Amino acid sequence: MRPEPGQVLHFSEDPAITRFVPHVAATAQQPEAYVWAVDARRAPDYWFPRQCPRALAWTTPSTTEADRERILGPGCGERMHAIEYRWLEAMRTVKLYAYRFPADSFTPFGTPYPNAHVATEPVEPLGPPEPVGDLFALHEEAGIHLRVLPGLWPFWDAVTRSTLGWSGIRLRNARPR
Fold this sequence. Notes:
Layout: E1 7-12, E2 35-37, E3 54-58, H1 65-72, E4 79-84, H2 88-93, E5 97-102, E6 107-109, E7 116-119, E8 130-131, H3 135-142, E9 145-149, H4 153-160, E10 165-169
Parallel strand pairs: 4-9
Antiparallel strand pairs: 1-5, 2-7, 3-4, 3-10, 5-8, 6-7
């Protein structure tokens, strides 16, 4: 589930949204109100139940072979997502939907590399939301290794000290350290 050229996506468990209005998220680190979306590169970051904590890692041009082997491991490709065992059932059963928007309604957000796209005006989807389907199958088809761990923090600590690219989403929902 990725956007077509000229589109961005918003993932939600709510299939009944007809208009997205900018808001300040409870966990926002900035005061501006936005509608959030992602491009094709970042769409896999959201192939999860909304509240599921996840640690994401991928190779970059500056990733060392030692870090790639140590953290991603042999045969694990260029990208890995990690979740906790307690989220497996939700991964199997969540009904996740993708809303498509015209990309020209959004601007890239994040530095030095954009990690999202934001709109400051209300936007309407291009059509009805699409069921995302089997989240495990999406990971497999994209060649993204999905690792299931008792807790995320040891993996997170290793990734953030490495030369890999990384992102953590909903980590406040992870098991305590």
